[in-house]
Amino acid sequence: MRSLYLYVVALFLSVPFCQAKNELIQDFEGDGFDSWQATGSAFGQSPVEGRMDGLVGELRGYSGNALVGSASGGTVATGSLTSPEIIISHPYIAFLVGGGSSPKNLAVELFVDDKVVRTATGHNGLTLRRIVWNVAEFKDKKARIRIVDQEKGDWGFIAADRFVFSLTENPTLPMGGRPKPRLDGNLIPVPNEASAAILPGLKLSVVASHVATGVSSPTSFSIASDGRLFVAETHRYHHGIEDDRANLHWYHDDLANSTNEDRRKMLEKWSSKKPANWYTQESEKIRILSQPTADGSFAKSSIYADGFNDMLDGTGSGILVYGDTVYYECIPNIWVLRDSPGGNKPQARKVLQDGFGVKVSLTGHDLSGSVIGYDGRIWGSVGDRGFNLTTREGKKYNSKNKGAVFRFEPDGSHFEVIHTGLRNPKEIAFDEWGI
To answer: What are phi and psi of 56, to 5 degrees?
Structure first.
């Protein structure tokens, strides 16, 4: 019996472990580019879902829900998107590519030893096609993938998706485009709005578009008593608002941060990677839309407030209009701006509470969603970028690794943390019983 056991073990050990047929490099399914670095404006701030403002048609044949494309701002925009360092572990790299055909100006490139060793371009089409590179000769070498757009003419954009390592020269890549939503049986699709469905009898219409009003990257909105619409916009995403996944050089420093001063010193320490002025070039903004027409759309648009571009400023992600006060959440601060009915600029503004976001952590793990609670106080939340603050009454809160729900009086007094230990709470809501 013992000899049989030893034989079976020996036979098992003699069989090599099977390597996965496909190994994902990047599928662009998140809310950003993960650790890929963008330059220029062509690729925007995140992956897209088939449609781009700069394209007349819709991209097709990509994988999953999203892909990257360089038509943000139109085909005249230029830029690049570069992967972090990867180790070539399989004999093939496969991916999907579409857009214009211009090998010199529109290309997916593979760099090994800082030299371009493989390249692919589009085919003047909106449907992505599969490309497979044989990279066996570079096994175990360090490499980077770059998607580049330097073309400003017709078909001056490139689209790409789902980069994988493969053991076979004929790998299967799903190429169905964005899956069509499965509608609830009670809902009906909205004409010309492919992603929207509503109950019969309701009406859906666009009241403020980028083309008509200039609204850009809205994160939240609040309606004033006189019908004006206040919109919080983010303009610093990946251009001042950073993410640890794209800045692994400071990762251990960020883990150690416990105050916003620590975070400022860390950014200054790594100024060789991104200089101080990188973080201040763009500002978060509050836009005000007014003069609603009979159909509910807004005729007038203007910037109500900006200048939220300190090195430490995060996403302007929450806004609440309550009486003559605008509460605005933008790490590291909760701001109050004094409004005047019908006005288009604040009369005054000040910091109501500071100390939020002591870590860079992940984008989106910010302050968000202030609401009026059942008790007449302002309620809000913060993600696990954490906080280290002292209230007006001198009470200290230090939670550098956890998110929380908090509340305070409308004048900023009696700030208190209600619940902590959360990862990324969003958008508090109360029902009719205050729950």
So the answer is: -75, -40
pLDDT at residue 31 in the model:
75
Q: Alpha-carbon torsion 244, 246, 251, 257, what sign?
A: negative
Q: How does 291-309 read in b/e, with b if 16+ C-beta sit within 10 Å?
A: ebeeeebbeebeebbeebb
Quote the percentage of the chain above a pLDDT of 90: 70
By C-alpha distance, which of 419, 416, 418 is closest to 394? Answer: 416
Name every residue whose Cβ is closer than 8 Å to that of residue 187 and which is 6 or more positions away in sequence: 197, 198, 199
Rounded to 5°, the CA angle 431-433-435 comes to: 60
> What does the block give as tokens for 405?
């729900």
User: What is the 8-class DSSP label of residue 243?
Assistant: -
Contacts with 392 (C-beta within 8 Å, 6 or more apart), sequence order: 353, 412, 413, 414, 415
Q: Domains of the chain (ranges plus CATH)?
A: 22-166 (2.60.120.260), 210-422 (no CATH)
Distance in angstroms (rounded) separating the CA atoms of residues 1 and 359 = 60
Tokens read off for 94: 């496969």
CA distances, 235 to each of 6, 24, 41, 359 (Å) = 65, 30, 12, 20
Q: What is the pLDDT of residues 329-370, one digit of tens each?
A: 999 999 999 988 777 899 999 999 999 999 999 989 999 889
Phi, psi angle pair for 164, to nearest 5°: -135, 150
Q: Record the tokens describing residue 98, joined without a space.
A: 């579409």
At residue 154, φ and ψ (nearest 5 deg) are -60, 145
Task: Select from 98, 35, 36, 109 the least CA-distant residue to 71.
Answer: 98
Which residue has tokens 């007349």?
56
The CA dihedral of 317, 389, 306, 81, to the nearest 10 degrees, is -60
- For 111, how many CA atoms within 13 A lie in the half-sphere containing its CB? 15
pLDDT of 16 higher than 80: no
What does R_g of the chain's alpha carbons equal in angstroms?
25
Nearest to 67 by CA among 135, 127, 131: 127
According to DSSP, residue 355 is labeled: -
CB atoms within 10 A of CB 176: 11
Helix (H) or strand (E) holding 235: none
Q: DSSP secondary structure string, 301-328?
A: EEEEEEEE--TT---EEEEEEETTEEEE
Q: In 85-216, which ranges are E strands? A: 86-87, 92-99, 106-112, 115-120, 125-134, 142-149, 158-166, 188-190, 193-198
What length does the chain have? Answer: 435
